[in-house]
Design goal:
Blueprint lengths: L4 H22 L1 H7 L6 H24 L5 H20 L7 H24 L1
Helix pairs in contact: 1-2, 1-3, 1-5, 2-3, 3-4, 4-5
């Protein structure tokens, strides 16, 4: 039997997190360019740190899928993404509008998908 819609969504969240994280770690300049970020080497380091955190959560989600722990992890990841969306949206004027909008929308999309899965099943 095939995967349920929730399982497919959980896989999408986890593999999406791995992909976003890997891009931020392996190609932080590309990541910065996509999101319209400007900055120095300090920003590259922070981008990579965000990437390792995001990829690690996605990998843990892949490993724990189908176990009782998946819902707890997904709840934590959903809360983290919701908080990230608020922090990014509220960033000051020194952060470009494009960066704030794209970052907040990306984090909010991950939060919305996670919230759907957590509350649906």
């Amino acid at each position: 039997m095939g995967k349920s819609q929730n399982d497919q969504l959980v896989d999408g969240i986890n593999y999406g997190a791995i992909g976003f994280g890997a891009l931020a770690v392996l190609a932080p300049r590309v990541f910065k360019g996509i999101y319209g970020l400007k900055g120095d080497g300090n920003l590259l380091v922070m981008t990579r740190l965000w990437g390792t955190r995001t990829a690690a959560l996605g990998a843990i989600g892949v490993v724990t899928r189908g176990t009782p722990h998946v819902k707890t992890l997904l709840t934590i990841g959903t809360a983290m993404n919701a908080a990230d969306a608020l922090v990014i949206a509220g960033a000051g004027p020194d952060v470009p509008v494009r960066s704030r909008v794209m970052g907040a929308l990306t984090a909010a999309a991950f939060a919305a998908m996670g919230s759907y899965v957590v509350t649906a099943g």
